[in-house]
Automatic annotation (TrEMBL):
Domains (record comment): The DHHC domain is required for palmitoyltransferase activity.
Similarity field: Belongs to the DHHC palmitoyltransferase family.
Reactions this protein catalyses: L-cysteinyl-[protein] + hexadecanoyl-CoA = S-hexadecanoyl-L-cysteinyl-[protein] + CoA
Domain of life of the organism encoding this protein: Eukaryota
EC code: 2.3.1.225
Main location per the UniProt record: membrane
Subcellular location(s) per record: Membrane
Protein name: Palmitoyltransferase
Length: 156
């Protein structure tokens, strides 16, 4: 039969160091607590950068030079005036890229690529993460200037 053990009391800090412990412990505790906010910011930043790379490297839906058009859909295709290729009715020729793109939205200078049928969702992800990152940064800027700085002046 094992012998029962008594709990060991935690050592008391000296009175000179205060109730919350030494100053270095309070500083370390504040660094750990603030790491959560920085971690969220860096996490959103990584998502934003990954979405930027994916949106810029993904093919927007360029049409091939010799598309195989079924006979039943021939009336839904037309000839492009600029590149002389057959394209579907909802496609558009990009003057910057020089290609016809299926369901082209626009040519985005931020990703240096067209936003078309195949990368539209990735572009929307990039817009979402950028907006989320901007709102997060604005919130912390607001808190810094209107909450933390007045507290710092009051403590001085």
């Amino acid at each position: 039969m094992p012998t029962p053990t008594r709990p060991v009391p935690a050592p008391r800090l000296p009175e000179a160091e205060g109730e919350r412990g030494p100053a270095w412990a309070a500083e370390a505790r504040s660094r750990v607590e603030s790491c959560g906010a920085g971690g969220v910011f860096y996490g959103i930043s990584i998502f934003c950068l990954v979405a930027l790379v994916r949106a810029s490297l993904t093919d927007p839906g360029r049409l091939p030079e010799n598309p195989k058009i079924p006979h039943a859909e021939r009336e839904l295709w037309e000839l492009c005036n600029k590149c002389n290729l057959m394209r579907p009715k909802r496609s558009h020729h990009c003057s910057r890229c020089g290609h016809c793109v299926r369901r082209m939205d626009h040519h985005c200078p931020w990703i240096n690529n067209c936003v078309g049928e195949d990368n539209h969702w990735l572009f929307l992800q990039l817009c979402f993460y950028t907006e989320l990152l901007t709102c997060y940064a604005l919130m912390f800027s607001f808190c810094h200037y209107y909450y933390f700085l007045p507290l710092k002046k009051r403590n001085l």
